[in-house]
Amino acid sequence: MLAYTYIEKGKFGLTEKPKPKITDARDAIVRVTLGSICTSDLHIKHGSVPRAIPGTTVGHEMVGVVEEVGTGVTSVKPGDRVTVNVETFCGKCFFCQHGYVNNCTDLNGGWALGCRIDGGQAEYVRVPYADQGLNRIPDTVSDEQALFVGDILATGFWATRISEITEKDTVLIIGAGPTGICTLLCSMLKNPKHIIVCEKSPERVRFIREHYPDVLITTPDNCKEFVLKNSDHGGADVVLEVAGSEDSFQMAWECARPNATVTIVALYDKPLLFPLPDMYGKNLIFKTGGVDGCDCAEILQLIEEGKIDTTPLITHRFALNEIEEAYRVFENKLDGVIKIAIY
Ligand SMILES: [Zn+2]
Ligand SMILES: [Zn+2]
Prior knowledge:
Blueprint (H helix, E strand, L loop, with lengths): L1 E7 L2 E6 L11 E9 L2 H7 L16 E8 L11 E4 L2 E2 L5 H4 L12 E2 L12 E4 L2 H4 E3 L6 H4 L5 H12 L6 E5 L3 H11 L5 E5 L3 H10 L4 E3 L4 H7 L6 E6 L4 H9 L1 E9 L11 H4 L5 E3 L8 H9 L9 E5 L4 H9 L7 E4 L1
Helix pairs in contact: 5-6
Bound molecules: zinc ion (ZN) (2 copies).
């Protein structure tokens, strides 16, 4: 089968590999019907994910059809259409039992698919702990509607859940990339008083204006002032930092009102300064990143009910054998790309 593979730092390539086999009773083999490319794939390519293993098939955003299951799998059967979770988790350890599945203590717990074990930019993928890692897609939900459930949408859902947003809140979301938009969609479900999105790219600002006209938009230069003007208590009640730069981190805590919750969704590529003396007296609550992707069944239900729609994010479609070109477009942010579907 065809598999897009992490060959060495700076190099991915389309290679021919044998179709994966069941190696454990809790495995399933899934025929990938639709996949996507994530910024994390680019992080692997550029060598900034040290635990990624060369030779591994990349890709951790996908949906498909179950081909085969191990004898210990009970929740899905061959022929089921499923979403695949970015995280591998056993469902039994202390962290899994508490819903902190990102910290599953299994050898492959956390983000393994498309990083340490073969992922989904391929024709088939082996999914360990299939009862945890797969969710059945309702018949009325299409592959494109379900494509982001296991990764970026799970991230947005988790981030808004832990941020405990209420209807009285002004919520600030910093960064309107794909994960920022998923965070926005999930925040909208909580009906806060205002949602402010801070984004510097004119293209993305246009996208937000076009699809979500009720959302207030500001740019980084103007953000602090804008938030002050549009909130009741001297800053945002909840801040979700999805942009991932030094400046966006500083903006996140500066735009928060005293006693606000600041949720860090972003992944930074270098250590940041946490200037406690400057924050002193603001009594902020920080929550830090690493999605616990265990709400996929609930997310699929919300999609089925028409409450979440991520299909506008899919701006481009490529076949698996054109994936080099898909990466070129995604990596260089060409042609207004937000997300790419690989079929
Ligand atoms: Zn991802
Ligand atoms: Zn576990």
